[in-house]
Design a protein that fits this description.
Structural class of chain B: alpha+beta
Number of domains of chain A: 2
Strand order of the largest sheet of chain B: 2-1-5-3-4
Distance between the termini of chain A: 56 Å
CATH class of the largest domain in chain A: Alpha Beta
CATH topology of the largest domain in chain A: Enolase-like, domain 1
Oligomer: heterodimer
CATH architecture of the largest domain in chain A: 2-Layer Sandwich
Strand content of chain B: 5-15%
Number of helices of chain B: 6
Strand order of the largest sheet of chain A: 4-5-10-6-7
Structural class of chain A: alpha+beta
Helix content of chain B: 25-40%
Largest sheet of chain A: 5 strands, antiparallel
CATH superfamily of the largest domain in chain B: Beta-grasp domain
CATH architecture of the largest domain in chain B: Roll
Shape of chain B: globular
Radius of gyration of chain B: 16 Å
CATH topology of the largest domain in chain B: Ubiquitin-like (UB roll)
Helix content of chain A: 25-40%
Largest interface: A-B, 30 and 30 residues
Number of strands of chain A: 14
Distance between the termini of chain B: 48 Å
Shape of chain A: globular
Order of helices and strands of chain A: EHEHEEEHHHHHHEEEEEEEEEHHH
């Protein structure tokens, strides 16, 4: 139950970090807070020879608003983002997701970018990134590139990142007035990985859904965007019947995995129920936020 | 790697293997065996310590990650004369432990909330310690102790009958 031998690197610049990743290739891993990587290393399911700590890189520890975006650097801890009131107001789906992520002691160490780069199918932050069309700022030996979240998550624990690339920041769009969000999960115990979960962020104008963003977790090899639900809600009133139909349509498109914890049918049923609840709560919050804004 | 930690207020310079977990360095290099290692993969909470004032799992932290930071362990809770922290006193009075293995983790998890001086209700106390496992108590005593300690720290309840019991 101890990590295998390794060399720890604490680069001060992104260029140094990328240089280390390029030098050590597959034998190196980026270390955020270590809350996903260290368990794997303690259990010897992962044995990287080199760890490149992203949390000591200068300039990546800030949460900054730039135009219509909030940018969170790779060193930003989840608890730091959770406690940021301006960020919570601008990205309500992110704020709604945090209480579901493990426990506060894990969020005190774990980073936002680390969870996204890890890409666990049952984790909340990849779903938030996907639903919000986050932009991911990736640095590598070939330069800087920006990847949309919809092309980032490939398969189980597999992302668009190359072994020599660093997810340096995530950009989340600032929600317009009249936006509300909610995240609902089914887990065996509070803080466990979800058997299924759903997050929804709705923007309501004049009683009609102007923008719907919905994603599910635990029901595929990656977090999935519930496009069918978004389509049936956009332009409609978010009443109980419309929400029920949206959740039903999106759940029908899911092909969840089956394991000893839950059958595929159970996960699909749970996803539908959780989407319905999340949409209902998001719509209620959107309306009350809209009233405050007007 | 050579690291510097401030442990319970004392500056410590150590040469540690990069792969060493903070929990193991605290226990084995520094002799602070109050911190326990239960599951060693972040599930049980027994190894919870504070790094720069925040409760974290010391089994999911490499000692080198804590280089330059302040670490606080359960050994720092009682006063030098042995007077227990109100949270420890409440654990004793509420029978919140039996074997005691998980207790340091529960104390360090609940400490920031208790020290914040805001009284917690039972539901909030349960949520607060939901990341820690106890196999003896069934949790009721622990939740009761956290509620009581938070009330005492908030000045909302007298410091029980601690003096009378001595």
């Amino acid at each position: 139950m101890k990590p295998s031998p390794l060399t720890y690197h604490a680069p001060a610049t992104v260029a140094d970090a990328v240089g280390l990743l390029a030098e050590h290739g597959d034998d190196a891993k980026v270390l955020g807070g270590g809350q996903s990587l260290l368990p794997l290393m303690n259990l010897r399911l992962a044995a990287p020879g080199h760890l490149v700590d992203a949390t000591r890189i200068d300039g990546l520890g800030a949460i900054e608003r730039r135009d219509g975006w909030f940018e969170l650097g790779a060193a930003v801890r989840q608890a730091q983002a959770e406690d940021d009131a301006a960020l919570a107001a601008a990205c309500p789906l992110l704020a709604a997701a945090f209480p579901h992520i493990a426990h506060r002691e894990i969020r005190n160490a774990g980073t936002v970018c680390g969870s996204i780069a890890h890409g666990d199918a049952a984790a909340e932050l990849p779903a938030v990134a996907l639903a919000l069309d986050a932009e991911l700022v990736v640095h590598g030996p070939r330069g800087v590139r920006t990847v949309g979240a919809d092309g980032f998550f490939r398969s189980f624990l597999e992302t668009d990142l190359e072994p020599d690339e660093l997810l340096a920041a995530v950009r989340l769009p600032v929600a317009p007035p009249g936006t509300g969000a909610a995240f609902h999960e089914l887990a065996r115990r509070h803080g466990d990985f979800a058997l299924a979960g759903a997050g929804a962020q709705l923007t309501v104008r004049d009683g009609v859904v102007a923008e719907a963003r919905v994603a599910c977790i635990g029901v595929a090899a990656t977090a999935v965007r519930a496009r069918a639900a978004e389509r049936s809600l956009t332009g409609a009133r978010a009443d109980a019947a419309t929400i029920a139909e949206a959740a039903r349509a999106a759940a029908a498109e899911l092909e969840p995995p089956e394991d000893l914890h839950a059958s595929a049918a159970f996960r699909r049923h749970a996803a539908e129920t959780l989407m319905r609840r999340a949409l209902h709560d998001a719509a209620a919050r959107a309306e009350s936020n809209g009233e405050e804004a007007s | 790697m050579k690291i510097t930690l401030t442990v319970n207020g004392s500056r410590r310079e150590l040469e540690v293997d990069d792969r060493r977990l903070l929990a193991d360095v605290l226990r084995e290099e520094l002799g602070l065996t109050g911190t326990k290692v239960g599951c060693a993969h972040g599930v049980c909470g027994s190894c919870t310590v504070h790094v720069d004032g925040r409760a974290v799992r010391s089994c999911l932290t490499l000692a080198v990650q804590a280089d330059g930071r302040a670490v606080r362990t359960v050994e720092d809770l009682a006063a030098p004369d042995g007077t227990l922290h109100p949270l420890q006193q409440a654990f004793s009075e509420e029978h919140a432990l039996q074997c005691g293995f998980c207790t340091p983790g529960f104390l360090m998890t609940a400490l920031p909330a208790a020290d914040a001086g805001v009284p917690l209700d039972e539901e909030r106390a349960r949520e607060l310690v939901s990341g820690n496992l106890c196999r003896c108590t069934g949790y009721d005593g622990i939740v009761g102790a956290v509620v009581r300690a938070s009330a005492i720290c908030a000045g909302a309840a007298p410091a029980a009958d601690a003096e009378a019991q001595r």
